[in-house]
């Protein structure tokens, strides 16, 4: 009630089963009548069973009026061929749609929150021709961003995000920028806005915006040349397999004035869309494969960048959608300040595949939604200063049997807790899994693992601690010290630079 309520002083109100406060009553009745006197108006009424409800002075039958009506729901879908981080606010409850085809929401990447003022907010990240879908009650009050490369559908009809106000976002977060406020490259984990070692178009030897021009420019390039893909270019690579010659830089404008960088994409299945020869560099581009959702290993697989020589550098790219990997390294490949995500194929699905590479350096990258962020298959690597966000589909940093050579894993932050792929059953996702015994050592130190399960005293197969060693019943050539386990923040010298 809006004002007050009390029992009528007659025998019709059941004094045992009815509870009355100033504005609320709870009770039950069977084969009889409950009666109450109130002032104001009825603000809410719920009941189970069959009943007739009347009010004085007219004793009007209001039973049907008091049965809660089914609230009308609206459907919102966000779709992007590239990638987009979005946020919106509604006046009523928001629910994720998990059975909405290629526009289904994700359990981890997308979040829904009820705000203190009674409104609801949702935020997420999607792309590569896929989308996210939600149902909501009430009206759409705000949506951000209001200008970008995406489509916004409201109840199946495309609408302009400019028709709605911007969502206030004090954090200023963006999937394409750093989580740190420092001005150094080291602070800009994942590259993008604020990354300083960009290549401006003014340094270009040749600027291209089509597949034919790109082929021609790379075929004619020599060491020291810069082949520049115009920042607004979207090039369908189809099944093309091109080579970046030795000493040549292939660049675009990711991070310059907030630019996302040109997008080289394919709906095909090339094995090495770009092969990188010695001392070449790929920077400032978006490298998009045909995937977004999980696929099983019967599907054809594909590889984005294949380092085929020494001294290769891959930096400040956003790479996603590859069945095998965004990048396959050579012995001394340097992969840094990249955002690598949504590589989620059964049996493969790597942000970076090191295979048998001796010692690639992998640093200041942001990973998410990969089966493994980094894979090894007999070689070694150094993985440092990276951030791995949720979700993960299996363990995060990997080394296959027989166990690799020299692996150094330090000063990373792995925010993953649960194994979304079920390798560990319903348990946690290991941050590091060494399968076998390294020839030299796997040295794991000064990392921040959100998985709060510390390593066992002795390995026991595929368990769900933060660090595991498989195919042995004792720790052999695996060392771990000064790591932090759990989501509470450790000292600043543990985990990624911040």
UniProtKB/TrEMBL annotation:
Residues 105-124, 161-197, 479-498 are annotated as: Disordered. Residues 168-185 have a biased composition (Low complexity). It comes from the Archaea. InterPro entries: Pectin_lyase_fold/virulence. This is Right handed beta helix region.
């Amino acid at each position: 009630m809006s004002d007050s309520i009390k029992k009528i002083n007659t025998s019709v109100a059941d004094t045992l089963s009815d509870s009355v406060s100033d504005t609320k009553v709870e009770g039950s009745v069977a084969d009889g009548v409950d009666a109450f006197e109130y002032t104001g108006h009825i603000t809410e009424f719920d009941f189970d069973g069959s009943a007739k409800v009347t009010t004085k002075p007219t004793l009007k039958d209001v039973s049907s009026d008091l049965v809660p009506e089914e609230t009308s729901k609206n459907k919102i879908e966000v779709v992007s061929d590239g990638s987009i981080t979005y946020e919106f606010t509604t006046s009523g409850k928001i629910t994720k749609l998990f059975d909405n085809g290629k526009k289904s929401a994700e359990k981890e990447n997308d979040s829904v929150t009820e705000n203190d003022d009674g409104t609801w907010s949702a935020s997420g990240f999607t792309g590569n021709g896929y989308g996210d879908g939600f149902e909501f009650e009430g009206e759409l009050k705000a949506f951000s961003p209001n200008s970008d490369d995406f489509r916004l559908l409201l109840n199946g009809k495309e609408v302009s995000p400019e028709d709605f106000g911007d969502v206030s976002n004090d954090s200023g977060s963006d999937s394409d920028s750093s989580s740190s406020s420092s001005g150094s490259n080291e602070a800009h984990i994942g590259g993008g806005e604020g990354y300083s070692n960009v290549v401006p178009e003014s340094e270009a030897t040749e600027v291209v915006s089509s597949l034919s021009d790109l082929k021609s420019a790379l075929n004619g390039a020599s060491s020291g040349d810069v082949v520049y893909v115009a920042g607004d270019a979207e090039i369908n690579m189809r099944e093309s397999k091109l080579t970046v010659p030795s000493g040549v830089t292939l660049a675009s404008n990711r991070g310059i004035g907030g630019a996302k960088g040109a997008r080289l994409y394919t709906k095909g299945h090339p094995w090495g869309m770009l092969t990188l020869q010695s001392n070449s560099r790929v920077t400032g581009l978006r490298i998009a494969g045909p995937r977004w959702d999980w696929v099983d290993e019967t599907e054809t697989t594909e590889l984005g960048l294949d380092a085929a020589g020494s001294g290769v550098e891959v930096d400040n790219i956003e790479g996603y959608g590859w069945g095998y990997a965004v990048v396959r390294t050579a012995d001394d490949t340097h992969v840094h300040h990249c955002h690598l995500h949504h590589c989620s194929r059964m049996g493969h699905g790597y942000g970076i595949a090191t295979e048998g590479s001796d010692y690639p350096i992998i640093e200041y990258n942001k990973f998410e939604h990969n089966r493994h962020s980094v894979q090894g298959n007999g070689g070694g690597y150094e993985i440092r200063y990276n951030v791995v966000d949720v979700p993960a589909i299996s363990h995060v940093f990997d080394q296959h049997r027989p166990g690799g050579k020299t692996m150094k894993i330090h000063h990373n932050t792995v925010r993953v807790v649960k194994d979304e792929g079920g390798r560990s059953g319903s348990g946690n996702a290991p941050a590091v899994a060494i399968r076998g015994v390294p020839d030299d050592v796997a040295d794991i130190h000064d990392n921040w693992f959100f998985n709060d399960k510390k390593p066992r005293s002795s390995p026991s197969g595929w368990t769900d601690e933060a660090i595991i060693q498989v195919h042995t019943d004792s720790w052999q050539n695996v060392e771990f010290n000064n790591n932090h386990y759990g989501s509470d923040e450790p000292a600043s010298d543990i985990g990624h630079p911040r």
